[in-house]
Amino acid sequence: MDEVDAPLLRRATIKDVAKAAGVSQSTTARALSGEGYVAATVRERVRAVAEDLGYVPHAMASSLRKQQSRSIGVLVSDLRNPFYADFAAGIARGARQHGYTMILVDDRGDAAEEIDAAKAFVGMRVAGVIVTPVSAEISTYLLRQHIPIVEADRTFSNGAADAVVVDNATASRRLSDHLVSLGHRRIALLIDETEWTTGADRFAGYMRSLEDSGLAPDPTLLVPVGSDVGDARRAAVDLLARRDRPTAVFSANNILAEGVWRAAGDLGLRVPDDVSIVSFDDAAWMSMVTPGMTAVAQDAVALGSAALTRLLGRIDVPAGPIETVVLDAQILPRGSTAAPRKP
Amino acid sequence: MDEVDAPLLRRATIKDVAKAAGVSQSTTARALSGEGYVAATVRERVRAVAEDLGYVPHAMASSLRKQQSRSIGVLVSDLRNPFYADFAAGIARGARQHGYTMILVDDRGDAAEEIDAAKAFVGMRVAGVIVTPVSAEISTYLLRQHIPIVEADRTFSNGAADAVVVDNATASRRLSDHLVSLGHRRIALLIDETEWTTGADRFAGYMRSLEDSGLAPDPTLLVPVGSDVGDARRAAVDLLARRDRPTAVFSANNILAEGVWRAAGDLGLRVPDDVSIVSFDDAAWMSMVTPGMTAVAQDAVALGSAALTRLLGRIDVPAGPIETVVLDAQILPRGSTAAPRKP
DNA sequence: AAATGATGTGGCAACGATGCCACATTGCTG
DNA sequence: CAGCAATGTGGCATCGTTGCCACATCATTT
């Protein structure tokens, strides 16, 4: 009854194509995949029929049968932060070129969401995972599941997994040196965390710079803040309203820099006359404001594509030596830094 | 030989769990899913064993068997543009809450990549798709494949698919009215396209405002530009360097506004004294520069979550009436607009 | 003429999870 | 005590695709 010629409401399967082309499933599969022997005429006919029926192979079934998948998981901390958005865009571009589909998850910096996402990745049997990790557990977990993983931006696994990072310590030291060489002696550091390698290295670079310059670090100038603009802004207002205001402020990332910038505006301070400001991590607005913000430019897109390259390498050679790729970062001097006013 | 107790290198399957727990696959499945009868003691034992083996159900196999999937496809034009990043973040949040995995693809505004991505979505048998469409084909294609789709930000399908958009025409008219009411008569419009509903409606709103104010539109003030900052910047430099410079510039989106802003800087023009600038679409930098940029604030996060809500509704009731959700947009007056100088 | 290789085709058993069905074993009720 | 519902359990086919294998049919070689 409804067996023959029923205009199919279900999506077409390879069986439908086979029936319509009058050949077996096996032949159809060979015709469509291009593997194995098929007569040229048959191949063309099958392909035409497939096209006609709007046949799209069931990726799940295929990946189940082939025991491998063409998707990779990407886990970032905050898509709305241009750093992560650029990073994801860098991965996306390359992934597509290599025929991979990207599953992007934003864990909002939450360790629990991060682990949940990792479980989902395992469930989908992704070919590999790129993560800007929030906790050490995720790498442990994924490695135990034998899923290739690349830690990006920061690393927790301490050599157990591949990693792609920026040379935070060096860039941070140079940025700090820049301020010191302008004559600054009271340089505050706004930083949101020092437990990840990013924060720890940026902190270390800053300290190293002070030490090498013979400056005693002032603990009251070390300002720990939360990871959002509002918190940084409030902390920066407090800092800049002090009687013994620092002559320069080093912000450990673009979000904190935004807070500092807004705080300077709130207090009516002139940059760089009243205070110099620098940022670790460039952002579009930093070259649009007046004066421009002196910053360390991390190429997040390049970071993403380097992470993808490493992941594809790892997928290719699962047992190869673990690698940590370190990228350089440039300092972009702009107008927000100048010699401090004489007291 | 290697049949028994081999420490499995492969990932554990339900079969492994069943064997280890000493029950059948069926019972194991029931124990893990919670559907159907299982003795409480058995359930606990099976769950413990599963945990122990690090068992994670094969999502592909499950979705193949159940003939339904828990992932949705999201297709945006440019992840690096904060508008799309916010939009995606808005979707991501809700998707997770509803147990869906988001497959995010950046088609870079390219129609061919868009169609490719759509095919990949069909291949993965996603439950639905949210797209900021680049061409009309994608909706046609997905609808023919019986995949629920929501067009966001702009719509091509003309009522054939659900849509979630901002009231571009009204917001654009108001923004233009704002300039007119300040006394501007020569208002240039920088716009990158007028074929999508976004561009067409913003253009229409601008024209409508001029008409209603009895101003004759000047074709030389209608500047078509490309969709990137560099192009907009060059075009804006040309525009603002004219002898008969417009007294105000209306940028049709945040990217063009960035170009105009930089162009004003290039020419050493003071905003708003020499020229007023407004932007359709707010961005973080617009409240950080001096003066702030008067802009229409589209809530991209809300747009994303509205699109998700509509999609889930459609998945729930596939045959329900097609809906177009229209969101309002606010004008944020800042310092970049003022009355024109007397000539 | 028989043997060999190249070219083509179809049957069928997986991949892992699920849910229907048949079959036990209880504890009740009439 | 037959009859029956409630509670448990296992067997097995199925989802769509793939690739191995067996089996044709031909042309070419010994």
Structural commentary:
The structure is a homodimer of 343-residue chains. Chain A is an alpha/beta fold and 343 residues long. Chain A is built from 12 helices and 12 strands. In chain A, helix 5 (82-97) links the parallel strand 1 and strand 2 (101-106). In chain A, helix 1 packs across helix 2 (25-33), helix 8 packs parallel to helix 9 and helix 10 crosses helix 11 (254-266). Chain A is elongated. Chain A starts with 13 loop residues before the first helix and ends in an 11-residue tail after the last strand. Chains A and B meet through helix 4, helix 5, strand 2, helix 6 and helix 11 of A and helix 4, helix 5, strand 2, helix 6 and helix 11 of B. Chain A binds a DNA duplex (30 and 30 nucleotides) through residues 13-15, 23-27, 29-30, 33, 35-39, 42, 57-58, 60-67.
Outline of the structure:
The first copy, chain A, has 12 helices and 12 strands.
The largest sheet of chain A has its strands arranged as 2-1-3-4-5-11
Most extensive chain interface and residues per partner:
A-B, 49 and 50 residues
Q: Give the oligomeric state.
A: homodimer
Query: Low-confidence parts of chain A, pLDDT < 50 over ≥5 residues?
Result: 1-8
Succession of helices and strands of chain A: HHHHEHEHEHEEHEHEHEHEEHEE
Strand % of chain A is 15-25%
Largest sheet of chain A: 6 strands, parallel
Distance between the termini of chain A: 96 Å
> Which structural class do the helices and strands of chain A define?
alpha/beta
**How many distinct beta strands of chain A?**
12
Over all CA atoms, what is the radius of gyration of chain A? 27 Å
Could you say which overall geometry of chain A the principal axes of the C-alpha atoms support? elongated
Task: Give the % helix of chain A.
Answer: 40-55%
- Mean pLDDT across the residues of chain A is 94
How many H/I helical runs of chain A? 12
